[in-house]
Amino acid sequence: MPAVCFTQTATIEQMEACGAFWPEAHADATKMATLAEAGHTVIGFEAVRVPFDITAEAELFGCGIKAGDLKQQPSVIKPVVKNLEDLEKLRDYKLNEGRISQVLEAVKILSEKYGKELPVIGSMIGPFSLAQHLNGDAWFGNLFTGEEVVPALLDFCSDFNIAYAKAMAENGMDTLAIIDPTASYELIGGEFYEKYALPYQKKIVDAMKELDIATVLHICGNTTKGLSIMEKTGVEGISVDQKVDIATAKGNVENALIIGNLDPVAVLWNGTPEDVAAASKKVLDAGVGLLAPGCGIVSMTPTACLQKMVECAKNHKY
């Protein structure tokens, strides 16, 4: 089994080992690539992945961002879209500006170094969650009342996602991780997912299929009941939260690979390598397609625990 991670990979111990630290590595392509590389050279992941957060997209469009630090990722604190008029002001964006440009350059650096031997994973926030970042606290209320800004914003976000993903592909990305946390079945249920998330995620996946780019979708929370709908996006892999039972998840999909789902806090961060081995065995015995964290790796996670997860994956016999 390949040892990979489709969610956030960086840790403080990796930063210390390679000399590239947050928050600088969020905004500098060379440092970003160096820290992403540490996931391979220090931990043993058989892929390299950027970036480490899901706020660069919102920042590009002018959202207020709370800067991260050595331990914490940046977060969105101020939306920019209240209505259709606000949305129109965002359409003249440029991918060669801001942190987005640095992510693209980091993809290129990693592809030039590792593209022939390792998958280069590009990650981005999904259209539903990006729309929520742009619209802020009003987003879910607007969904329930059917405001006209909702479909317009989702169309805009998914079109942006496609343009961004194509730019990543041009720079050497061969696998796309779509991280869409607020599209969780636990938050919006199946009916709203089918209406407001599925069509827009599928647009991205369809565009990537034309470029022969593999896609993985990660959504937080207990998505068990929504997996069959998520599979309709056409993704090759679905990354599931630690709340999901792997055996049940496998029974809820036909073709998608189920990826996960070690608890990133209780097991990987606060556990021991022995705890990781026991949890890995349980997930592997349940038939997971790829062993991985159930969400982004906590920056304080010990290297030894991540290395044990890698060891368990590599030693697994199907």
UniProtKB/TrEMBL annotation:
Keyword Zinc belongs to the record: yes
Biological process per Gene Ontology, one example term: one-carbon metabolic process
Xref: InterPro entries: Methanogen_methyltrans (IPR052024), Mtase_MtaA_CmuA (IPR006360), UROD/MetE-like_sf (IPR038071), Uroporphyrinogen_deCOase (IPR000257)
A Pfam family matched in the record: URO-D
Keywords: Metal-binding, Methanogenesis, Methyltransferase, Transferase, Zinc
PANTHER family: METHYLCOBAMIDE:COM METHYLTRANSFERASE MTBA
Descriptive protein name: Methylcobalamin:coenzyme M methyltransferase, methylamine-specific
Annotated source species: Methanosarcina lacustris Z-7289
Species lineage: Archaea, Methanobacteriati, Methanobacteriota, Stenosarchaea group, Methanomicrobia
